[in-house]
Design goal:
It is a single chain. With 336 residues, the chain is an all-alpha fold. It has a two-stranded antiparallel sheet. It starts with a helix and ends in an 11-residue tail after the last helix. The mean pLDDT is 86.
Length: 336
Amino acid sequence: MNDLYWLPVIFAGLMALAMLVYVVLDGFDLGVGLLLPLADAEKKDVMIASIGPFWDANETWLVLGAGLLLVAFPMAHGIVFGELYLPVLAMLAGLILRGVAFDFRVKAQDPHKPWWNAAFAAGSLLASFSQGVMLGRYLTGFADGALAWGFALLTGAGLSLAYALLGATWLVMKTEGALQAKATAWARRSLLGAGAAVAAVSLVTPLANPSIAAKWFSLPQLLLLLPLPLATLALFALLQASLPRLARRQAAGNDSFCWLPFAASVGIVLLSFWGLAYSVFPEIVIGRMNIWQGAADPAALWIILWGAVAVLPCIIAYTAFAYRVFWGKAGGLSYQ
């Protein structure tokens, strides 16, 4: 094996996997936080209960992705986190606020509980929007100017809407009764926003970065990549058609196929991530550095790889175990 070539590719794949799993798993619990202000007090407790067993484990994947960037691509880590210092700080503040509010809202007296609910929602919004801004800044190669920052803000809004869709469809799958009906309505509304955001970001990204445009709009790549946007459009159409039917079934007491909206939403995230990964690879800092230029020494990468081989199955195992144990509908929240 050519260590100089394949080790950076392997670590880029591991880092991409960690970030993809994070976006899917923490995306839905951030989305539930974004939707929290739309529910009454009793339904808020069920919403929190639906993500309670999972949200800590979900954030492990963010730590893994950032850790792999640090140890496998140290030069790129310095550039990326130097350029993204403020949005990273805002994201961490949002995640900390969420963590504190999650525990305190259960133990707080009734007059204080709405404040902690608001703090949980605010932390969810701050973390979601900051992550989108980070993505937008990264895709433009950290360019200066109002247009580049405008694109970053657009991406922040788009990712927040995508998380809201994931959160709503998660609640459709995990709840029942009046809350499930509300979640279906939230999913229908957020679907329009998420669809518009995905379309806008997909159209603007090639304009914001000429190297990405060249990858997508050259032949024969254009023909080979055409199934990606078509499949994404098909999943949006599936959601648009299925959500009203699910609402009618739920009103009649039929909960079948409640998993379908969440599965379709995850499919949209997977296809979008695939498109972004194709747009970026093999660069680790767009326009400045590829994965081979930014990689650590092969001897160090081998040591890190063996550590990843030992740690990654453990993370996958306890994540899968948590979802298996707490599978099914969420009930009332209790710490007794």
